[in-house]
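Please decode residue identities from the backbone states below.
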């Protein structure tokens, strides 16, 4: 499954504002060879900006360099997100207990 969108973008403020859409879908945050986080949002750009601004310490601690996304309707987001988490096993999506 992974991402249909094969484009990757730099994980920084300017790149998120220029490349992430204000639309619903799933996204992945990574650095070379490591998936850091997979998530979903009704507004991908706004959500990624929250991470740029430090909302999730795990993401910043893992020094992300890029992100990608796939657009999807809201009714598909839960299933797509869960599929990405299972497939990619991102380090900041790990559940304890």
């Amino acid at each position: 499954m992974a991402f249909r969108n094969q484009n990757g973008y730099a994980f920084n403020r300017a790149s998120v504002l220029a490349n992430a859409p204000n639309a619903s879908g799933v996204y992945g945050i990574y650095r070379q060879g490591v998936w850091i986080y997979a998530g979903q949002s009704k507004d991908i750009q706004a959500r990624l900006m929250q991470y740029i601004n430090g909302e999730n310490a795990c993401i910043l601690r893992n020094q992300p360099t890029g992100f990608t996304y796939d657009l999807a309707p809201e009714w598909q987001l839960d299933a797509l997100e869960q599929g990405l988490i299972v497939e990619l096993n991102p380090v900041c999506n790990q559940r304890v207990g």
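Observation: The mean pLDDT is 95.
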